């Protein structure tokens, strides 16, 4: 099933492919993510036994280094070579979206206490799409723009979310915190120069 959030005058175009991956495929990818120690920069559980409130992640791609500007600072992060599973998924999504991707950002949210604040992705090629696969727990992705009502989209495991141009130029997106207790991960495919 495909859901679309499109309004040209609002400059929003988002497509959700519900159950793009079957549960078995989604679960297998999540197992790969959680089995690789380079994905877990912070403990999933604190010394006090509470879920960590820090996001974990890694970047995969065609380069050795990922450079971003964040709050006026230049940040360099290592880029890992594609593993076969992520590369296969990248190729499948590229065929669906008719766009090539050269970077995959893995994000791990240990529980609903961990989110990401409203932001825009800034380092991408102009006019390109952002495509992400949700793994694990169901969470909300929120789109916000000044003067407009927020749009909340439910992302279940296996869902593919495609943020088409020019949405990212006008709308902020976030994963708000909530009361869920299970882990969620996402694989976010982008195209950079």
From TrEMBL:
One term of GO molecular function: dioxygenase activity
Segments forming domain Fe2OG dioxygenase: 100-193
Record SUPFAM superfamilies: Clavaminate synthase-like
PANTHER family: ALPHA-KETOGLUTARATE-DEPENDENT DIOXYGENASE ALKB HOMOLOG 3 (PTHR31212:SF4)
Protein's recorded name: Fe2OG dioxygenase domain-containing protein
Single GO biological process annotation from the record: DNA alkylation repair
């Amino acid at each position: 099933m495909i859901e679309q959030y499109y309004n040209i005058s609002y400059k929003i175009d988002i497509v959700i492919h519900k159950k793009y991956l079957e549960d078995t495929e989604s679960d297998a990818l999540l197992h790969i993510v959680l089995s690789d120690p380079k994905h877990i920069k912070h403990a999933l559980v604190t010394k006090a036994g509470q879920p960590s409130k820090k996001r974990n992640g890694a970047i995969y791609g065609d380069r050795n280094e990922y450079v971003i500007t964040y709050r006026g600072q230049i940040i360099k992060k290592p880029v890992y070579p594609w593993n076969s599973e992520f590369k296969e998924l990248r190729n499948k999504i590229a065929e669906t979206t008719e766009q090539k991707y050269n970077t995959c950002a893995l994000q791990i949210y240990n529980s609903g206490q961990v989110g990401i604040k409203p932001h825009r992705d800034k380092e991408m090629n102009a006019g390109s799409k952002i495509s992400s696969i949700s793994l694990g727990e169901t969470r909300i992705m929120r789109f916000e723009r000044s003067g407009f009502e927020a749009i909340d989209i439910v992302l279940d495991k296996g869902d593919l979310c495609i943020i088409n141009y020019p949405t990212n130029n006008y709308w902020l997106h976030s994963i708000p915190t909530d009361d869920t207790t299970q882990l969620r991960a996402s694989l976010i495919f982008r195209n950079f120069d």
